[in-house]
Design brief:
Shape: globular
Order of helices and strands: HHHHHHHHHHHHHHHHH
Membrane topology: Multi-pass membrane protein
Subcellular location: Membrane
Oligomer: single chain
Keywords: Membrane, Transmembrane, Transmembrane helix
Main location: membrane
Strand content: under 5%
Protein name: MATE family efflux transporter
Distance between the termini: 20 Å
Length: 452
């Protein structure tokens, strides 16, 4: 973000450990609730006793995670721009940012609906399921794909709430979506006998309900007045900036996805036992990531708000506190995995060979929270500060380091793969940490002496 004008006022932005945790805790719970949509579908379909239907739900969970997760930039980009508008005390721009994000969500969601046949034609042959599973999966897909505009709109709503610092409201909306999904899934699938189509309709209608509730929250926040001049909503420079920010976050996200797809593929090439062991251990990292994402959310909101307020001391304090909490949580999670990881492995599989191999590589998985702590935190800082081009470029460098390390460590087999992944996480955090000191001065103007 360009520095504010030389005479831009420095507005106060309160930053404390309590504020950081107050933002992070609800979002951690919201992140942990995210997998529930897929889990509920699986649990309800499991009551029917059809392996083909279970396979169809699992297949679509994988497919929609890939399709929708790639558009998570709508949440992150909206959060950063909203936080900056809050810091600048510009309520009109707060409304305009939300409406721009909503327009973008609608356009992208409808484009995905329009391309559904092309997506299905490419995706299902690649997934390689049996004809029976594929047929059921296609039924689910044809219904669930219509939720794309609503799912993306929910990203915009959640990002906007994060930008305001209203993460508890975001959590309540996520809980509401999950409750509606559970109730409708039971009604449609078990009560009305719609099978896999029932689970698809339940999730689609739950996402739709979330948008309606989210819009009600936004309108209520502004006292019923969401009116923004059309010229401001579609201001060329601001719309181009939002598109550029979201483009950079999207490229960063797909690069991150590529890293984990590569990790999974290399595990698969090493054999079924290695694949299963790595999958179990990777879940430990993903769960740890939900907690670190909560701190990253706090860093997003507070750093973005400090940028908007032209308050460098608050920005630096927010970064410092977020790093402290992220590292503290990471150390705690690593300690838990070292102490109880074996028990978690036994709970997740009954295969003796998988248990033994997973225990062998457990130390690598146990240190991933520490290795990735800075990367998670600085992702939040960079999103809040809208340093998205730098984040994109640093991700590309870290990805190159990952592939380079893997190539060098191939003789070590799966040990080398895990070491390359840890190196990737460290490279991301270290690169962003070093670039932070170069980017910081250009985002503020004037003499920054006001206390946070």
């Amino acid at each position: 973000m360009p520095a504010a004008s030389i005479d831009a006022p420095i507005r106060p932005v309160p930053v404390s450990h309590r504020i950081v945790i107050g933002i992070a805790a609800p979002m951690t719970l919201a992140h942990l609730s995210t997998p529930l949509l897929g889990l509920v579908d699986t649990a309800v379909i499991g009551q029917i006793g059809s392996e083909a239907l279970l396979g169809a739900v699992a297949l679509n969970a994988l497919l929609f995670d890939f399709l929708f997760w790639g558009f998570g930039f709508l949440r992150m980009g909206t959060a950063g721009l909203t936080a900056q508008a809050v810091g600048a005390d510009d309520r009109l721009e707060q409304r305009a940012v939300f409406l721009r994000a909503l327009v973008m969500a609608g356009v992208l969601g409808l484009a995905m609906v329009a391309l559904q046949r092309a997506i299905a034609a490419v995706a299902f042959p690649l997934l390689g399921a049996s004809p029976e599973v594929t047929h059921a999966a296609e039924v689910y897909f044809a219904i669930r794909i219509w939720s794309a505009p609503f799912a993306f709109a929910n990203y915009a709503v959640l990002g906007w709430l994060i930008g305001l610092g209203r993460t508890t409201t975001g959590l309540l909306l996520q809980i509401g979506i999950n409750v509606v999904n559970i109730l409708l899934c039971i009604l449609f699938t078990l009560g009305m006998g719609w099978g896999v189509a029932g689970t698809a309709w339940a999730t689609t209608l739950a996402e739709t309900t979330g948008v309606v509730a989210g819009l009600a929250v936004v309108i209520a926040h502004f006292g019923g007045n969401l009116g923004v001049p059309r010229s401001l909503v579609f201001d060329r420079a601001k719309f181009v900036r939002m598109i550029a920010i979201n483009r950079d976050i999207m490229l960063r996200t797909f690069a991150l996805l590529a890293a984990f797809v590569f990790f999974g593929r290399q595990g698969a090439l090493a054999g079924d036992v290695t694949l299963a062991a790595n999958a179990i251990l990777n879940n430990f990292f993903l769960v740890g990531g939900y907690f670190l994402d909560g701190i990253a959310t706090a860093a997003e909101q507070l750093s973005g708000r400090s940028i908007g307020a032209n308050n460098r001391p608050s920005f630096e304090k927010a970064v410092r506190y977020s790093v402290i909490w992220s590292l503290g949580l990471a150390i705690g999670m690593s300690a838990v995995l070292f102490a109880a990881g074996g028990a978690f492995i036994d709970f997740m599989t009954t295969s003796t060979s998988v248990r033994e191999l997973a225990r062998q590589f457990l130390p690598y998985a146990a240190v991933t929270p520490i290795a990735g702590a800075l990367a998670f935190t600085f992702d939040g800082v960079y999103v809040g500060a809208t340093w998205n081009a730098a984040m994109r470029n640093l991700m590309a460098v870290a990805l190159a380091c990952y592939f380079g390390l893997w190539w060098l460590l191939q003789p070590l087999g799966n040990h080398g793969l895990w070491l390359a992944l840890i190196g990737f996480l460290v490279a991301r955090g270290a690169g962003q940490g070093l670039a932070y000191f170069r980017l910081l001065p250009g985002s503020f103007s004037g003499i920054q002496t006001k206390a946070a």
